[in-house]
């Protein structure tokens, strides 16, 4: 992108702030995990906490483990409590999408969308009990959070039909990975 995605302007707010505001309306606590302790972030809305990744530069699985460990130790989450994990570049995620994902969890340890068979671990719900599995994968050298779903019988993977029944265009899963994605998202946001 040429610059940090979290600070990209989206309307009158940085992209990360837009997502944080959506999450504040859907769930508590909202925690942003910095890649490094000194990573600069845009000014976040009141009520959003920040922590830093316990294992910087090891990828999103380590960040997920950091977040789950934090809510367990600092917010009283038990093993069956769950957290939404999302990236800083999902501008179309809505409160209704978060609620729908939570409803899909049922008795599973995690629920992960997989449009066209491509798992989306950074727009998924994880129970705190998934932390043990994440730690074991990290200790074995695995870095991809998709493995949490593919390596577990307690995972629920949402297929295209289920996802499109909720959001026919899968808008809530759109992310901004390239300058062209960013331009399209800005244009689509105007509608």
Count of DSSP H/I helices: 7
- Counting helices, strands and paired strands, the structural category is alpha/beta
How many independent structural domains? Answer: 1
Radius of gyration: 16 Å
Major sheet summary line = 4 strands, mixed
Text of the CATH class: Alpha Beta
Task: Briefly note the CATH topology name.
Answer: Spore Coat Polysaccharide Biosynthesis Protein SpsA, Chain A
| Whole-number mean pLDDT | 94
Dominant shape: globular
Summarize the amount of helix as a percent range.
25-40%
**Topology pattern, helix = H, strand = E:** EEHEEHEHEEHHEHH
Would you mind describing this structure in some detail?
The chain is of the alpha/beta class and about 190 residues long. Helix content is about 35%, strand content about 15%. It contains seven helices and eight strands, in the order E-E-H-E-E-H-E-H-E-E-H-H-E-H-H. A hairpin with a 2-residue loop joins strand 1 and strand 2. Helix 2 (about 60-75) crosses helix 4.
Question: What does the secondary structure layout of this molecule look like, with pairings?
Answer:
Layout (H helix, E strand, L loop, with lengths): L8 E2 L2 E2 H12 L3 E5 L13 E5 L7 H15 L7 E5 L8 H11 L4 E4 L9 E5 L2 H10 L6 H5 L4 E4 L1 H7 L12 H11 L2
Parallel strand pairs: 3-4, 6-8
Antiparallel strand pairs: 1-2, 5-7, 6-7
């Amino acid at each position: 992108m040429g610059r940090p995605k979290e600070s990209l302007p989206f309307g009158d707010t940085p992209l990360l702030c837009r997502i944080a505001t959506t999450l504040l309306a859907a769930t508590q606590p909202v925690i942003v995990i910095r890649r490094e302790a000194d990573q600069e972030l845009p000014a976040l809305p009141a009520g959003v906490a920040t922590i830093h990744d316990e294992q910087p530069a090891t990828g999103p699985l380590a960040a997920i483990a950091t977040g789950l460990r934090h809510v367990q130790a600092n917010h009283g989450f038990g093993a069956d409590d769950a957290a939404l994990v999302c990236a800083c570049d999902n501008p179309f995620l809505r409160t209704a999408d978060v609620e729908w994902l939570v409803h899909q969890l049922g008795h599973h340890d995690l629920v992960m969308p997989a449009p066209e068979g491509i798992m989306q671990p950074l727009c998924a719900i994880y129970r705190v009990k998934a932390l043990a599995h994440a730690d074991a994968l990290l200790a074995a050298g695995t870095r991809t959070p998709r493995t949490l779903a593919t390596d577990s019988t307690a995972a629920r993977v949402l297929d295209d039909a289920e996802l499109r029944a909720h959001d026919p265009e899968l808008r809530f899963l759109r992310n901004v990975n390239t300058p062209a994605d960013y331009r399209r998202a800005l244009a689509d946001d105007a509608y």
